[in-house]
Amino acid sequence: MITLDNVTLTFPDGDSRITAVDHVSLSAPAGIVTGITGPSGSGKSSLLAVAATLIRPDSGHVWINDVDAATLTRNEATALRRDEIGIVFQQSNLVPSLTAREQLLVMAELGGGRHRHRDLVRARADELLEAVGLAKHGRKRPAQLSGGQRQRVSIARALVNNPSVLLVDEPTSALDQDRGAEIIDLIARLTHEQSTATMLVTHDLVHRGALDTLVTVVDGTITDTDVPATTQLETAGVQ
Predict the structure, then answer these.
(1) pTM for the predicted model, two decimal places
(2) d(C-alpha 202, C-alpha 126), whole Å
(3) In whole angstroms, how far apart are CA 190 and each of 26, 78, 86, 113?
(4) CA 216, CA 223: separation in Å to the nearest integer?
(5) pLDDT tens across 120-174, in order?
(6) Distance between alpha carbon 34 and the CA centroid of its chain, in Å?
(7) Phi/psi at 224 (5° precision)
(8) Using CA atoms, how far apart are residues 194 and 155, in angstroms rounded to an integer?
(9) What is the 3-state secondary structure (H, E, C) of the chain?
(10) Burial class for 54, CB neighbours closer than 10 Å (0-12, 13-18, 19+)
(11) Max alpha carbon distance in the chain (Å)?
(12) List of domains in the chain
């Protein structure tokens, strides 16, 4: 689980400061996709950056499991991000010279895979490529893959170290509506299967049906939270 508790983030603007995130409290339970939407400039990406420990908030707490990431040093935050957080950016940001499978193997190495048996690391990479529908494309490099396929590799790469938290920033911005819907559905399915706590920023409400919860952010503040009744019951353990 990831919980933001009364988080505020500001940026300098001349002699004053601009508030990007204004006293936000938000929780994303394991196995649930929490969507974050709102107009451009509303603070969505800033909120995700705080959750990812990429930016330290001015005040408040960022609980990732039992660790308050807002109190960590830069090196400690880097280690927590490596071990517990998977991040999917708007662009796939794949290494051009590496195959799809190698993208995952390198991430596993950076995340401590060197301490695991190589066969286990390779099996995890193959498992995830299968899960995202790319089992037959593992030897292809990014230039040989479509935009949707590259984003699928990015999702698999984010999950290779079994993170407890998955943070996704506008993953469909460069895709057409059909490919975008496939990516959102894939993230939702893997969230449920892998029991990750997922926060997903999107501006496109056509994907609402795939999200368990939808939070609306305006001017850095949560203005609305939409939780379907079925999700409330499942979160409470009622089937």
Answers:
(1) 0.88
(2) 29
(3) 22, 24, 12, 21
(4) 6
(5) 889 999 999 999 999 999 999 999 999 999 999 999 999 999 999 999 999 888 7
(6) 10
(7) -160, 145
(8) 12
(9) CEEEEEEEEEEEECCEEEEEEEEEEEEECCCEEEEEECCCCCCHHHHHHHHCCCCCCCEEEEEECCEEHHHCCHHHHHHHHHHHEEEECCCCCCCCCCCHHHHHHHHHHHCCHHHCCHHHHHHHHHHHHHHCCCHHHCCCCHHHCCHHHHHHHHHHHHHCCCCCEEEEECCCCCCCHHHHHHHHHHHHHHHHHHCCEEEEECCCHHHHHHCCEEEEEECCEEEEEECCHHHHHHHCCCC
(10) middle
(11) 56
(12) 2-92+164-235 (3.40.50.300)
Of all residues in the chain, the percent with pLDDT exceeding 90 is 71
Query: Which tokens belong to 83?
Result: 């071990």
pLDDT at 12 over 50: yes
Structure tokens at 213: 């919860």
Compute the residue count for the chain. 239
Bridge partners of 36, per DSSP, are 201, 215
Residue 30's alpha-carbon distances to 87, 134, 188, 198, in angstroms, are 16, 25, 12, 7
Distance separating alpha carbons of residues 51 and 69, to the nearest angstrom:
9
How far is it, in rounded angstroms, from Cα 225 to Cα 228? 10
To the nearest whole percent, how much of the chain has pLDDT over 70? 92
